[in-house]
Amino acid sequence: xxxxxxxxxxxxxxxxxxxxxxxxxxxxxxxxxxxxxxxxxxxxxxxxxxxxxxxxxxxxxxxxxxxxxxxxxxxxxxxxxxxxxxxxxxxxxxxxxxxxxxxxxxxxxxxxxxxxxxxxxxxxxxxxxxxxxxxxxxxxxxxxxxxxxxxxxxxxxxxxxxxxxxxxxxxxxxxxxxxxxxxxxxxxxxx
Amino acid sequence: xxxxxxxxxxxxxxxxxxxxxxxxxxxxxxxxxxxxxxxxxxxxxxxxxxxxxxxxxxxxxxxxxxxxxxxxxxxxxxxxxxxxxxxxxxxxxxxxxxxxxxxxxxxxxxxxxxxxxxxxxxxxxxxxxxxxxxxxxxxxxxx
Lengths: 191, 143
Fold this sequence. Notes:
heterodimer; A: mainly alpha; Rna Polymerase Sigma Factor, Chain: A; Arc Repressor Mutant, subunit A; 2 domains; B: mainly alpha
């Protein structure tokens, strides 16, 4: 059953068929959210929000672009909106941390049991550097690199999602990589 | 190969997708240039962290959770009944009538419920009394 056939039946009232779409696209949406948020629980919650939004706006899907392009756009926009909102609340969070109300985010990475504590510390530090470097990228560079690295999409697919040209996507990815290298080397020198 | 070209190819080199000739050029440069070698390590680090995040699995109950939310959403939409037109009109008319009745009763209350007038009449000679010549109360206070 193709996406368009499923969508048609859902719009006609077969709500249960939406499960098929969720099962098909949930890993893709989760990976995209993870690329922007770097936290499993947040990515889970956002994936849920994305699918609710997809369900509510499904009658408006015209089929001009493929369904996967459409769902990627929703996931990217939802992720960017979440980041914008959380950066607005960051001042409050900093105050909560200062006054001890906020316990901070849990480390959600899976660390092998046999890893020694020193390596774990180094690994966490490196993860923090990469996440900070990714978070500091401009939105379009960040979107291009997340879609390229986390979703393994081609430049053509990324261009369709971002509504731009392949050349522009290539330039964005190159700039993002250069910026990442620069920022990581800065973190390393600071250490 | 210069540093600029090497830095551009680092990612492809890391992924192992470079053609043989370019790959050996990059390898030679990395062996000679400390700065590019450092950059290569950082690219590897970034790729490793991103690959780790990419390999993470979502909550196994996520699909069930999503479908439960969608079900709730559907029920809420099914439970929503639009208010019929006549009910809307009747409600508005009732509110308007209540306001008008309240204003009317207020006016009636103000007009008909005047305070009772004093029945004790003053003697006629009091009307001829000249108040101006009477002693001021202020004078009394000076005593």
